[in-house]
Design brief:
Elements: E1 6-14, H1 19-33, E2 39-42, H2 56-67, E3 71-74, H3 88-96, H4 109-127, E4 133-135, H5 143-152, E5 157-158, E6 162-164, E7 171-174, E8 177-178, H6 185-201, E9 207-212, H7 220-235, E10 238-239, H8 242-246
Parallel strand pairs: 1-2, 1-9, 1-10, 2-3, 3-4, 4-5, 8-9
Antiparallel strand pairs: 5-6, 6-7
Helix pairs in contact: 4-5, 6-7
Length: 247
Amino acid sequence: MPHDRQLLVSIHDVGPRFESQVDALVDRLTRLLGQTRFAMLVVPNHWGEAPLTANRAYQAKLRGWAEAGVEMFVHGWFHRDDSRHEGTIARLKARHMTAREGEFLGLGHAEALRRMVDGRRLIEDAIGVPAAGFVAPAWLYGDGARTALADAGFAIAEDHMRVWRPATGAIVARGPVITWASRSRPRIASSLAVAALAPRLLYGQRVARVAVHPGDTSVPRLLANIDITLSAMARDRTVSRYADLAR
């Protein structure tokens, strides 16, 4: 039966660098959700080591997923943070919230816009339809990236706490993303603890978001918890698309 509350699910860091892990996540989500109504966040050239432009086979795979109903987002360009950060808060975010992957945290407007536009062009050429939107790596945006979003023409964007329309700034969903961390034992333990509480804590939220990453596939405990969490949330929420929010 349909539900008023929505569930949005996404696979991050999609690209040739993590091809086998992404394939495994696609199979898992399709089985858990019973459909391909989820999003993929595509990295054009992950850490400068896996250029999508040089991989026609992977471009064809992305097109096939898009034709099956998967929403495709532009997810930065390199997914690597090479900026020199000004200000204590920015330095703390860059150091503690991500492993040098907050690419758009320190970029100025012009460079952020260039990477957004180039990424959009590349991904749309591959999939043959408009990109669904933009999500910065690690959900981190500096002032330059936020202002560039309004000029880049994306229908929708998200960070860790909200989804919004860049053209108007209108917020279309609030609340934290449920996600898992695989980089260390403490991070694994903390993400499992948060995920265990999240379905109840987010019960009153109209929209709940769940994000999985290629690294999750290397930790059986995380995969088991992803199965439990998604199965529970899909039972009393409608699995939806970001495009539903954009409208």
